[in-house]
Design a protein that fits this description.
By secondary structure, the chain is an alpha/beta fold. The protein has a single domain (13-270), classed as Vaccinia Virus protein VP39 (Rossmann fold, 3-Layer(aba) Sandwich), CATH 3.40.50.150. It contains ten helices and eight strands. Strands 1, 2, 3, 4, 5, 6, 7 and 8 form an eight-stranded mixed β-sheet that branches. It is globular and about 55 Å long. It starts with 12 loop residues before the first helix and ends with a strand. Bound molecules: S-adenosylmethionine. Residues 26, 49-52, 54-55, 73-75, 78, 99-101, 116-118, 121-122, 178 line the site of S-adenosylmethionine.
């Protein structure tokens, strides 16, 4: 395992997220959501739970000089990476620190709201969706994605199981946290209760490729709050962890590395 320099999990989580997860995973998913929202020149866009800002950045390329883009996230460290990545772009994106359940905007401020893989982390998603409805203008469009449960995302299921076995319950739980997975019925109810009419929920499936099992584990861990705990794992334990994952995901290993399937719900609705 670990050729150059071992695991190197000590870089900042948000920087690792931007480097490892945005280009192959969140970037392509952002393009999908952009298409769903039918974004137009002049639109006023809000990206809720923007993280390092990939949705907002992609949206900015569609709204033109007259459009505006705001990204909001609860985590200031993610916003720091977003600010650095967009220092020179036009239109300028406004980055705000704040909670999805208490959006600091007036009613009917935005034409399009995105929320990519963030709703599952919000303590009260019903309140967050009500807030999104409140700040969306009449006829405004909402596009949200949330991973389906782990049973549909086998790569992360096996990764979480192996982490639990070798790095402890907390590490397993952390890797499971993005996959809380509301059912289609629950998502529809959440959207309708928030005031959205005729929400459309689709299942979207893609994949992400890593050059090796080791890189899959290392990059995912480095980009998450797990970095510290895995960095301190004994080298022997790490090797067993990797062997365990390689065996569990044997059917997803090919001549160029490992392919991890990604299975998500996309919710699109109009105000
Ligand atoms: C998996 S990341 C997704 C980030 C981004 N949307 C993307 O596509 O790369 C989840 C983000 O949700 C943010 N988040 C979690 N709870 C939040 C809340 N209550 N309000 C705002 N952001 C929140 C986290 O800080 C994190 O940046």
């Amino acid at each position: 395992m670990a050729g150059n320099g071992g695991w190197q999990l000590t870089e900042s989580g948000p920087e690792a997220y931007e480097q490892y997860l945005v280009p192959p995973l969140f970037g392509p998913w952002a393009e999908r959501l952009i298409k769903h929202a039918n974004i137009r020149e002049g639109d006023r866009v809000l990206d809720v739970g923007c993280g390092t800002g990939i949705m907002a950045r992609r949206a900015a390329t569609h709204v033109g000089e007259q459009g505006t883009v705001v990204g909001i996230d609860i985590n200031e460290a993610m916003l720091t990476v977003a600010r650095t990545a967009t220092a020179d772009i036009t239109p300028a994106i406004e980055w705000r620190q704040g909670d999805a359940t208490a959006l600091p905007f007036s009613d009917e401020t935005f034409d399009v709201i995105f929320c990519q893989q963030a709703l599952q982390f919000v303590e009260d998603p019903a309140v967050a969706l009500r807030e999104m409805h409140r700040v969306l203008a009449p006829e405004g469009r909402l596009a949200v994605s949330v991973f389906r449960p782990l049973s549909y995302n086998v790569g992360y299921d096996k990764l979480a199981e192996a982490l639990e076995r070798h790095a402890g319950a907390e590490a397993g739980m952390m890797m499971r946290s993005p996959f809380r997975g509301h059912s289609r019925k629950e998502l529809r109810a959440l959207a309708e209760d928030a005031g959205f009419s005729d929400p459309v929920i689709t299942i979207e499936i893609s994949s992400v490729r890593y050059p090796s099992v080791e890189e899959f584990v290392r990059r995912e861990a480095a980009s998450s709050p797990l970095a510290g705990s895995l960095d301190s794992l004994d080298r022997g334990v790490r090797e067993v962890l990797l062997d365990d994952i390689a065996e569990a995901l044997h059917d997803y290993i090919d001549d160029q590395g490992i392919v991890i399937p990604l299975d998500s719900h996309v919710l699109v609705a109009q105000r």
